[in-house]
């Protein structure tokens, strides 16, 4: 009864499904925040169906809800999604998608599916991890987005329930696991400072873009200085 | 209408970005510095969004119940609380303070 191969496969499936359940939980917060930011239930659901990248979705509704222009919202959301291209790069030798199969593989390429896939020990297990997590998160995220949107719609005044503070907490919750060393902490501080200084002086939505630009500059310069120190 | 344009444009860009990872020659994205910048981009953006969502009302910076919510969220994260708990605690804090007439 101890077939190591099928045991390994079911371990991957369990891992993928538990990630899907955990992600589904914050789909509820996304759905509620999106409608209280002024998007309709339809727009909220289309975001989860078509955009399908949590951080980018939170950024889009955050900037729109804060009064930023559509252009600024799309720019913030798109910059936050740039990392997904790196995931595709990592997953190309694993998934080797060809023709039309590149469409679903690309669409499901997000933090969670990549993390589960690359954590496995062989390519068949990595592919299994990718599909189980990707499809599981997709279904859970879209279902809970709808539930959250409907709940948010019936709440009425978002401030009375502290949903604006919930949005701030959502962003800090997404940021927290990335603060794993001196460099990300420094870049987070720079991003926060640039935003604080620029909010009163430049149009809404642009401080996020400026923070991204300055943060990128710091990241661009960082390793160079370190290697010189080491040398 | 503006919101629909933003929703559809952001969705199109997001898909194009994901797709690019599978078709762009690896050399273009694999340079260490490019990797570092793309890896750090979310950090700068999220930090900026935290500030905006906590302290801004359009063009003004204010200190209100949202800041208390954020402080509670940070404590919850430091205690390794799950995402949904962090969000609910922050919302509850701000809602409670407002019910008491502050912020």
TrEMBL record, chain A:
Keyword tags: Cell membrane, Membrane, Transmembrane, Transmembrane helix, Transport
Membrane topology: Multi-pass membrane protein
Transmembrane segments: 25-51, 58-80, 128-149, 161-179, 185-218
Pfam families in UniProt: AzlC (PF03591)
Subcellular compartments: Cell membrane
InterPro entries according to UniProt: Brnchd-chn_aa_trnsp_permease
Family the entry assigns: Belongs to the AzlC family.
Full protein name: AzlC family ABC transporter permease
Organism annotation: Kineococcus halophytocola
Organismal lineage: Bacteria, Bacillati, Actinomycetota, Actinomycetes, Kineosporiales
Automatic annotation (TrEMBL), chain B:
Keywords: Membrane, Transmembrane, Transmembrane helix
Name recorded for this polypeptide: AzlD domain-containing protein
Regions that span the bilayer: 40-58, 70-97
Organism: Kineococcus halophytocola
Highest rank taxon of the organism: Bacteria
Lineage: Bacteria, Bacillati, Actinomycetota, Actinomycetes, Kineosporiales
Pfam family of the protein (one): AzlD
């Amino acid at each position: 009864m101890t077939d190591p191969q099928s045991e390994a496969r079911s371990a991957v499936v369990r891992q993928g499904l538990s990630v899907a359940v955990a992600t589904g939980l914050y789909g509820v917060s996304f759905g509620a925040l999106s409608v209280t930011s002024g998007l309709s239930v339809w727009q909220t659901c289309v975001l989860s169906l078509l955009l399908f990248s949590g951080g980018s979705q939170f950024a889009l509704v955050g900037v729109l809800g804060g009064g930023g222009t559509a252009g600024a919202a799309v720019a913030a959301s798109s910059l936050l999604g740039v990392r997904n291209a790196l995931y595709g790069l990592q997953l190309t030798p694993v998934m080797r998608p060809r023709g039309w199969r590149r469409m679903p593989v690309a669409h499901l390429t997000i933090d969670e599916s990549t993390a589960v896939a690359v954590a496995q020990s062989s390519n068949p297990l990595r592919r299994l991890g990718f599909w189980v997590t990707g499809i599981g998160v997709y279904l859970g995220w879209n279902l809970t987005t709808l539930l959250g949107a409907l709940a948010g719609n019936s709440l009425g005044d978002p401030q009375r329930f502290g949903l604006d503070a919930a949005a701030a907490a959502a962003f800090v919750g997404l940021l927290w696991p990335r603060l794993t060393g001196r460099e990300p902490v420094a870049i987070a501080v720079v991003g926060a400072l640039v935003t604080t200084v620029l909010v009163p002086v430049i149009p809404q939505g642009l401080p996020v873009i400026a923070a991204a630009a300055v943060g990128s500059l710091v990241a661009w310069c960082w390793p160079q200085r370190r290697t010189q120190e080491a040398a | 209408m503006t919101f629909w344009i933003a929703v559809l444009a952001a969705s199109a860009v997001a898909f194009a970005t994901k797709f690019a990872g599978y078709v762009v020659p690896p050399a273009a994205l694999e340079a260490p510095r490019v990797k570092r910048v793309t890896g750090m981009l979310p950090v700068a953006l999220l930090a900026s969004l935290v500030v905006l969502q906590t302290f801004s009302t359009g063009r003004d910076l204010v200190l209100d119940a949202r800041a208390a919510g954020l402080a509670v969220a940070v404590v919850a994260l430091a205690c390794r609380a799950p995402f949904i708990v962090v969000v609910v605690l922050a919302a509850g804090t701000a809602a409670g303070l407002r019910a008491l007439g502050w912020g």
